[in-house]
Specification:
Layout: H1 2-50, E1 53-70, E2 77-91, E3 97-105, E4 114-119, E5 125-127, H2 130-158, H3 165-174, H4 179-203
Antiparallel strand pairs: 1-2, 1-4, 2-3, 4-5
Helix pairs in contact: 1-2, 2-3, 2-4
């Protein structure tokens, strides 16, 4: 009787260890993803703005680029549009003058209008929304990083592998006091922070 009981319990124990190992592996991946998002936020936001060349783009013409892509239904196609403006970019310090500059615009401008812009690469330009806009962009990435970091913390400490309600209940029993509240708080702050960052970017 004792031997039979031991054999029947062994597979369950092995399965639990396998799930826990998978969960911790997933957790490490999520933590790495969070770190990458933090680095991207710093690079695409403040760093890019600080190392760019500010100037003005004198508009020659603006166009709308329409693209169609299929949705889940083969008969349904969604159309997206992107506004582009072309003209002459002149750096504020006079170091750069590009007669064939182009940038993605938030609106269609008339010929001769001047747009605040900055040069980020050999042929890359962006509209200049100032330090506020660049910091808001960085914050959007940083707040977004809190979500995978929170989930990565949950997975690495408990072995949670997104295996449904039973897996989550098992993870809850393995949690240190206050860990679940920390995870929920980080996710909530991340979602609210991303929303507020995009709101700031929209209005600047």
């Amino acid at each position: 009787m004792t031997q039979a009981h031991t054999n029947s319990a062994s597979p369950g124990s092995s399965g639990s260890r396998n799930i826990g190992g998978l969960g911790r592996l997933i957790g490490v991946g999520l933590l790495l993803a969070g770190v990458v998002l933090l680095a991207l936020g710093a690079y695409l936001g403040p760093y890019t703005y600080a190392t760019s060349t500010p100037g003005k783009l004198t508009v020659e013409t603006c166009t709308v680029d329409y693209k169609h892509r299929s949705t889940s239904s083969s008969s349904s196609r969604k159309r997206t549009k992107t506004k582009w403006c072309y003209g002459t970019f002149t750096a504020t310090d006079g170091s750069v003058k590009d007669l064939n500059a182009e940038l993605r615009s938030d609106s269609l401008h008339q010929r001769g209008e001047v747009i605040d812009a900055f040069k980020t690469g050999e042929t890359s330009y962006q509209q200049d929304s100032g330090w506020v806009g660049s910091i808001a962009l960085g914050c959007a990435w940083w707040f977004g990083a809190l979500i995978p970091l929170a989930l990565g913390l949950l997975c690495t400490t408990t072995g949670f592998a997104f295996g449904g309600a039973s897996d989550f209940n098992r993870a809850k029993r393995a949690m240190a006091p206050g860990l679940l509240s920390t995870v929920y708080t980080l996710i909530a702050v991340g979602i609210v922070g991303v929303a507020l960052s995009f709101l700031v970017m929209f209005f600047v």
